[in-house]
Amino acid sequence: MKTRTLAAALLGGLLLAPVTAHGGPSQNFPPASEHYSDLFDYTADWQNSTYTLGATGLPADVTFTDNHDGTGHLGGPVHVPAGVYDIDLSATTPSDVTFHKTLELTVEPERAMDRLARSNPTTVSRTKPFVLKARVKDQDDGSFGDISLADPGTFLLDRRGHTTTCDATTVAGSLHTSPGPGYFDVKCRVPSGLHRGTYDVTHVVAGDYYAGVSKAGSLRITR
After folding, report:
1. Which pLDDT tens digits describe the chain residue by residue (223 residues)?
2. Which residue segments constitute the domains of the chain, with CATH numbers given?
3. Which H, E and C letters describe the chain, residue by residue?
């Protein structure tokens, strides 16, 4: 069950290595962390081969297997929003006494591969509006999620520490989902009137499923 929502991070990470956690009936298993759409690989060792094991509260597409040797395996792609999920792991003795332990799984947004469009202007007059574009793409790691769940994001124009923001919208018809990794294009119309000078331009995605930031581009505003 999702118990609270995490603040979206700007950067995600790589696949979590397989984990085996040990503990007796009186202790919860150590917490685990994974990113949206990545493969969760966690083995809970109850250290008693006579126990019958079970699990409830599993995130979507994560499955549990009793290995019948005192260990239980949780695995599968994590297809849930960022947040903290409490999984209940149980062990029943041959005399029908059941122990419960909590595994706290933190899910973070997957890294969005964010790229500014090469066609973006490098010099514009302050008297004219202009359009910025970027592409938001799923990480090419083989465990793809639904890129349509990514937020269109925001363009940031920074001039000597003073930042102008422009909320992006998805370019109609640009969504590509198969074969993975999926992607879509975004754009934003920046109105005229910015102060003259040189701006660092970035595009940022922050949300429950994907988060990322592009490399900075340069834009010069003239008269």
Report:
1. 333 222 223 333 333 457 777 755 567 899 999 999 999 999 999 999 999 999 999 999 999 999 999 999 999 999 999 999 999 999 999 999 999 999 999 999 999 999 999 999 999 999 999 999 999 999 998 889 999 999 999 999 999 999 999 999 999 999 999 888 999 999 999 999 999 999 999 999 999 999 999 999 999 999 9
2. 2-108 (2.60.40.10), 111-222 (2.60.40.10)
3. CEEECCCCCCCCCCCCCCEEEECCCCCCCCCEEEECCCEEEEEEECCCCCCEEEEECCCCCCEEEECCCCEEEEEEECCCCCEEEEEEEEEECCCCCEEEEEEEEEEECEEEEEEECCCCCCEEECCCCEEEEEEEEECCCCCCCCHHHCCCCEEEEEECCEEEEEECEECCCCCECCCCCCEEEEEEEECCCCCCEEEEEEEEECCCCEEEECCCEEEEEEC
